[in-house]
Amino acid sequence: MKTIKYKLGIFLAFLSLGCAKEYHVEEPTLQIAVAKNTVKVGDIVVFNFDGNADFISFYSGEKGMDYVFHNKERIYQSNNVLNFRSAKYAGNNTDCARLKYSTDFNGVYDRTSIRAATWIDITDQFTVPPIVGTSATFSNSGDLEISNLFPTDGKPVYFGWFFTTQANSQRTQFQVAEFKIQGVVTQDPSLSGVVYDFVDCAFKLVLGEGFDGVTVSPAPNINSTRILWSGTFANDTFKEGWAISAPLHKSEQVNLGLDKPNPIKIVSDPESASYQYVYKTPGKYLATFVIANSSVYGRKEVVKQIEINVEP
């Protein structure tokens, strides 16, 4: 009986070792090298591979693809800069749109509340085009630093487009697109990002005098990409309307999130002898490869780095 138990124990031990070996995830063996570490801008850098790995991801070391920020968000102190694109066309209402802001609007999107708020006109601090042609030709507004518009007590700012169509005039249409507030990093503008895009601004349209019981085609409206102001083709009465944003708060930081790698191999891809990359800006970069073997039984990951010096 003891002999049987002894033999069974040995058998189970061997079986256990066999299973452990069968399900073991091997560490990737891939080795990476370059012929030279110093190259010129525009040269093809060839990273030569020797060995195998299921997965390979590449961080060039450039902004936005730097391994240092693979698990640490890029957060920078920034200013608030407003810009947009606009187009004005057809008709003869040359001053049909004015951009204003308010710090005391109560957030109720109706005629009474809009009229009761204090609105400060900032149109003249931007480039708003004159009437051009009979279809939309967009112009850039230019940039305005607006950090000083936000109240010091942390309350929001509302931006509003104030639209008018004069009586006894021909219809002029006006469009606003890409209205956004950017977080501009002063020490390095290339790191800037968008704080509020057009969708975030969530403009709401309120029609005022002149629209009750009047059919307008195309009717003033707001969609996911632009604001459109319009009126009847021949306006015999004065018309007005407003496009008012959501409450927008001052941001003193811009968060660009995590840097992302370029995935250059997954497990189903064939093995490759090399990977090529071109650097377009001079500097010293730490090219990083994250290589891994992975299965349902686990993952083994190795990080390999090579310094690349890029000359002009």
Question: Explain this structure to me?
Answer:
Strands 6, 9, 10, 13, 14, 16 and 17 form a seven-stranded antiparallel sheet that branches. The mean pLDDT is 91. It is elongated, with a radius of gyration of 31 Å. By secondary structure, it is mainly beta. It contains three helices and 24 strands.
Largest sheet: 7 strands, antiparallel
Percentage of β-strand residues: 35-45%
Radius of gyration of CA atoms, rounded to a whole number = 31 Å
SSE arrangement, N to C: HEEEEEEEHEEEEEEEHEEEEEEEEEE
Look at the structure and give the mean pLDDT: 91
- β-strand number: 24
Which structural category fits the helices and strands? mainly beta
Low-confidence stretches: none
Cα distance spanning the termini: 81 Å
- Helix % is under 10%
Number of helices: 3
Coarse morphology: elongated
Summarize the structure.
With 312 residues, the chain is mainly beta. It has helices at residues 2-22, 111-116, 198-201, and strands at 31-34, 38-40, 44-50, 55-59, 74-77, 79-89, 97-102, 120-121, 139-140, 144-145, 158-165, 169-170, 173-184, 193-196, 204-207, 221-222, 226-229, 234-235, 239-244, 253-257, 262-265, 274-278, 283-295, 298-311. Helices cover 10% and strands 42% of the residues.
Jot down its keywords.
seven-stranded antiparallel beta sheet, about 300 residues
Describe the secondary structure blueprint for this structure:
Elements: H1 2-22, E1 31-34, E2 38-40, E3 44-50, E4 55-59, E5 74-77, E6 79-89, E7 97-102, H2 111-116, E8 120-121, E9 139-140, E10 144-145, E11 158-165, E12 169-170, E13 173-184, E14 193-196, H3 198-201, E15 204-207, E16 221-222, E17 226-229, E18 234-235, E19 239-244, E20 253-257, E21 262-265, E22 274-278, E23 283-295, E24 298-311
Parallel strand pairs: 2-24
Antiparallel strand pairs: 1-3, 3-22, 4-21, 4-23, 5-20, 6-9, 6-10, 6-13, 7-8, 7-11, 11-19, 12-18, 13-14, 13-17, 15-19, 16-17, 23-24
